[in-house]
Amino acid sequence: MDKQVTITINGLAYQATVDTTMTLLQFIRDEAGLTGTKSGCENGECGACTVLLNGKPVRSCIILALEADGAEILTVEGIATDGALHPLQQAFIDHSAVQCGFCIPGMLVASKALLGRYPNPSETQVMEALGGHLCRCGGYKAMSEAIQSLKQ
């Protein structure tokens, strides 16, 4: 059975009729055409699909689009403003925290949420925020350094 949903992604409202089994990840990629959010494991384990749902990091592959009806979503594309990289994105570049790049969208979104909660996160808080995010290239130390460099 199909249902009508309206989901605001990066400040723009997207309305579509979706199958009740469609995930938020599928909605973001297929309906909104935003491909920065990656599909990794498709069972909530790897973190590549992390987005902010009403300000909280979630794995979009295990959230139904119906559950996000009326919600505000922030994806990696929404982190930059007016075509300029967000300081977090620049810090990842400056600290060579981007290797293959597959995990980076989820890492950036999770890191943005962390910095929203804790502007001066401890190393433990950084590791907890990135916990469960899999980076096959092993760039955790560089990512932590990038996040730590933004302390105010």
Describe the structure.
- Helix content is 31%, strand content 18%.
- It has 152 residues and is of the alpha+beta class.
- The protein folds into 2 domains: 3-78, Ubiquitin-like (UB roll), CATH 3.10.20; 87-148, [2Fe-2S]-binding domain (DNA polymerase, domain 1, Orthogonal Bundle).
- Strands 2-1-5-3-4 form a 5-stranded mixed beta sheet, sandwiched between helices.
- The longest helix has 14 residues, at 104-117.
- The relative contact order is 0.16.
- The mean pLDDT is 94.
Which key terms come to mind for this protein?
152 residues, five-stranded mixed beta sheet, alpha+beta, Ubiquitin-like (UB roll), DNA polymerase, domain 1, globular
Record the SSE blueprint.
Blueprint: E1 2-9, E2 12-19, H1 24-31, E3 50-53, E4 56-59, E5 72-74, H2 87-94, H3 104-117, H4 123-130, H5 140-148
Parallel strand pairs: 1-5
Antiparallel strand pairs: 1-2, 3-4, 3-5
Task: Sum this structure up briefly.
This protein is of the alpha+beta class. It contains five helices and five strands, in the order ββαβββαααα. The protein has two domains: 3-78, Beta-grasp domain (Ubiquitin-like (UB roll), Roll); 87-148, Orthogonal Bundle (DNA polymerase, domain 1).
